[in-house]
Design brief:
The protein has 261 residues and is an alpha/beta fold. The chain has one domain: Aldolase class I (TIM Barrel, Alpha-Beta Barrel). The chain is built from twelve helices and ten strands. Bound molecules: the ligand O=C(O)c1ccccc1NCC(=O)[C@H](O)[C@H](O)COP(=O)(O)O.
């Protein structure tokens, strides 16, 4: 059983419980459910830097990254740094995140917010909207083609952008459909946790230009971005590199300055 299988098994139990605690009707009645969302894909299309900065306390590959920060300050710092969007991990067991983190980030900044979650049920998409997200992540490795279609179409109805994540050619081919906005290539091998930008390079030519290309994981310096831009990547999801510092906002500011120089 790989790490995604374990996460998904736990997630099914968690989502079933959540559904009993907070019915869909209650989520739909929340103030944020009516909020006008902001498109991350549009921002990335028109950006020269394309940074999506992540809030990530811990992870299966690195264990603890940083438990000493508060998400309000991190979100404000990322916004001041000029990032295009923020990714907020909401999984508790493996990443130390929560839906409260998403809510707090929403209260702190105007950035497009990605709910970084292992989505296996439509309920989580409605939750994402109710807690202030602008974008959802769908992971091809844990979903069937039919699920990707149903979930992405629901997201579009709710005016949420969709980032579809793939790790290989097979996942990419089963996933391409018009209800997606962004195609994310994850550079992290989830069996070994090794990261290689070669994954983004190899898959880039198979992604049609209608989708905004995003490279995810293992980006730790501006050279990585300069290497990936000629392959058509417009978005770069960066977590650990910023979150391991005492001030992720300052770290993102310096990173963007270096990228523009
Ligand atoms: O980060 C992990 O260890 C991980 C393990 C299993 C599933 C997902 C995982 N990470 C989620 C992400 O996609 C990353 O948080 C994101 O791409 C940022 O990566 P990084 O810049 O390397 O922190």
């Amino acid at each position: 059983m790989n790490i995604l299988d374990k996460i998904v098994n736990d997630k099914r139990i968690e989502v079933d419980l959540r559904k009993q605690l907070i019915p869909v009707k209650q989520l739909e009645a929340s103030v944020l459910f009516e909020r006008q969302t902001v498109s991350l894909s549009d921002k990335l299309r028109h950006s020269n830097t394309g940074i999506i900065a992540e809030h990530k306390r811990r992870s299966p590959s690195k264990q603890v990254i940083n438990h000493n920060l508060n998400v309000f300050d991190v979100a404000k710092g990322y916004q001041n740094a000029g990032v295009c969007g923020m990714s907020v991990l909401t999984d508790g067991k493996y990443f130390g995140g929560s839906l409260d983190d998403l809510l707090t980030a929403r209260a702190s900044c105007n950035l497009p917010l990605l709910r970084k979650e292992f989505i296996i049920d439509s309920y989580q998409i409605i939750e994402a909207k109710a807690y202030g997200a602008d974008v959802i992540l769908l992971i091809a490795a844990i979903l069937t083609k039919a699920e990707i279609k149903v979930f992405s179409e629901l997201a579009k109805q709710l005016k949420l952008d969709v980032l579809l994540e793939v790790h290989n050619e097979e996942e990419l081919h089963k996933s391409l459909m018009p209800s997606l906005d962004m195609l994310g290539v994850n550079n992290r091998n989830l069996k070994t946790f090794d990261v290689s930008l070669d994954t983004s390079k190899q898959l880039s030519k198979m992604i049609p230009n209608d989708f905004v290309k995003v490279s995810e994981s293992g980006i730790s310096n501006v050279e990585a971005i300069k290497t990936l831009q000629p392959y058509g990547y417009k978005g770069f999801l960066i977590g650990e590199n910023f979150m391991k510092t005492n001030n992720p906002g300052d770290s993102a500011t310096q990173f963007i300055k270096d990228l523009q120089s």
